[in-house]
């Protein structure tokens, strides 16, 4: 397959997980109508709670639960691949969960799981976050093969660690579901995304939470598709939206042939 339409489903998730699933279903249907075969939801698509511990109330054991059932049903209904942003998956540590990306195939089967490795910690005196208070860090990079593509899974803060992507080998697509704060997003989001595309000579599909949330947090949005030359092909700044674009593997080959940087690595 040389071309496939991919979509980033930008949301402004709320504390109501059931309402968030309804909104996700609406966006999935719109993306399917526009021909997308691979869809990416944002980090915490299912809940942006009033506090850090809100996610613990809707955690699910891996392989079962209403959120995972919803994702499987949507993938089957629309016959698409869904890369499900992140949702809270149970851990063996009390009061902490994994922030997990699950990948569903068109048969509704979960074909991959990635637990976010790098946990965000930020304090500028006005806003502060420490994900380690409620999350258990993952340990293993994950690549999935879907729709004829090698896809590297990552989440939000992982974007700042290029060695994660190098550990995955040659990729056709990097996905980055996120809930970047407006402060850090305005400074670094597009810069980092384009850098990851250029240095790995592959496409990057990023999906952010994008707007003012009921809990007072403002997320940066700017969901986008970037090609292997670092060009932004599609972007939506804020608000709930479907960001569609075409991934062309011939473009990957062209870039890697004209500038074979990946073959020149010495470290």
Automatic annotation (TrEMBL):
What the entry lists under CDD domains is as follows: nit
Q: Which family does it belong to?
A: Belongs to the carbon-nitrogen hydrolase superfamily. NIT1/NIT2 family.
Q: Matching InterPro entries, A to Z?
A: C-N_Hydrolase, C-N_Hydrolase_sf, Nit1/2_C-N_Hydrolase, UPF0012_CS
Q: Which organism is it from?
A: Limnobacter litoralis
Q: Which UniProt keywords apply?
A: Hydrolase
Q: Indicate what this protein is called per its UniProt record.
A: Carbon-nitrogen hydrolase
Give the Gene Ontology MF terms in alphabetical order: hydrolase activity
Q: Give a Pfam family name.
A: CN_hydrolase
Taxonomic superkingdom: Bacteria
User: Which positions fall inside the CN hydrolase domain?
Assistant: 2-249
Lineage, please?
Bacteria, Pseudomonadati, Pseudomonadota, Betaproteobacteria, Burkholderiales
Known PANTHER family for this protein? DEAMINATED GLUTATHIONE AMIDASE (PTHR23088:SF27), NITRILASE-RELATED (PTHR23088)
């Amino acid at each position: 397959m040389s071309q496939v339409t991919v979509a980033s489903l930008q949301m402004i998730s709320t504390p109501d997980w059931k309402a968030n699933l309804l909104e996700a279903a609406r966006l999935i249907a719109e993306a399917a109508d526009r021909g997308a075969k691979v869809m990416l939801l944002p980090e915490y698509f299912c809940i942006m709670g009033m506090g850090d511990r809100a996610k613990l109330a809707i955690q699910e054991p891996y392989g079962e639960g209403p959120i995972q059932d919803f994702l499987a049903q949507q993938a089957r209904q629309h016959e698409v691949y869904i890369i499900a942003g992140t949702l809270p998956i149970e851990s063996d540590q009390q009061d902490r969960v994994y922030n997990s990306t699950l990948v569903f195939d068109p048969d509704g089967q979960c074909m991959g799981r990635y637990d976010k490795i790098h946990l965000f910690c930020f304090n500028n005196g006005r806003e502060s976050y420490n994900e380690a208070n409620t999350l258990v860090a993952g340990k293993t990079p994950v690549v999935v093969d879907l729709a004829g593509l090698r896809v590297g899974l990552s989440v939000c803060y992982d974007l700042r660690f290029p060695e994660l992507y190098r550990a995955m080998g040659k990729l056709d697509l990097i996905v980055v579901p996120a809930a970047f704060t407006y402060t850090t997003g305005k400074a670094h989001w597009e810069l980092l995304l384009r850098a990851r595309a250029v240095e790995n000579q592959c496409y990057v599909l990023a999906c952010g939470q994008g707007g003012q949330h009921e809990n007072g947090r403002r997320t940066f949005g700017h969901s986008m598709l970037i090609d292997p030359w670092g060009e932004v092909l599609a972007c939506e700044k804020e608000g709930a939206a479907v960001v569609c674009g075409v991934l062309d593997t011939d473009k990957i080959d062209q870039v890697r042939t004209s500038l074979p940087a990946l073959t020149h690595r010495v470290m």
